[in-house]
Amino acid sequence: FTSTIGSSDKLLARILGLIFICSSSLVIASSTGLKSSFISECDNNYFDQRKKPATFYVMNPNVATLDGTVCRGTLDAFLSLLKEYPELKILEIYEVDGKQCNESKFQLFNSIYRHKLEIVVVEGGVAVSDGMDIFLAGNTSRLETGSRIGFFSGKPLQDNEISMMKCEHLYRQYYKDLSLDPNFYGFRLRQQPTALWRTESVYFF
Length: 205
What we know:
Helices cover 37% and strands 28% of the residues. The protein has helices at 8-32, 74-84, 103-114, 130-136, 164-177, 184-190, and strands at residues 2-3, 37-39, 55-60, 63-69, 90-97, 100-101, 118-128, 140-143, 148-152, 157-158, 195-197, 200-204. Helix 2 runs parallel beside helix 3 (103-114).
């Protein structure tokens, strides 16, 4: 399959994009006195320390950007975001992934779904596995130019909180709640990777 590991130009674009997101978020903080970012507190026993914990950056009271890897603490970060910014309408995905299987992430997906957010994978953005499931949770969801969604090949990683059988049940129930075919979970397991992203095998649509 084709490697899509970023070139130096892509790395520079990512760095510049993060600088823009962080600076915009800081402007909101200085003008409102409210928190401008909400960082997931991840369990070190089950979280890859080389990855960035999923972080919500507030662009304005109606828009937040999500970047990083989803973990158990992402639900609390999202609920804190909503408490401080109850008028949130749009969640932008920059580069979001995650593949640990635990109940809190399904609570996160369902919270996003209940809040009826518009989910946007921004230009050049990537939503993989947990990022894709967040994309599916949107009241409306759209992909901007050059953005991609997909999932890691193979089964989700078990973090000993729940069995793989329970994990499969939660995935199937989640897709059913979204009025999607619950067999989409089985489809995910059967697909061969189409690319490398951050050195990991991914199936991109």
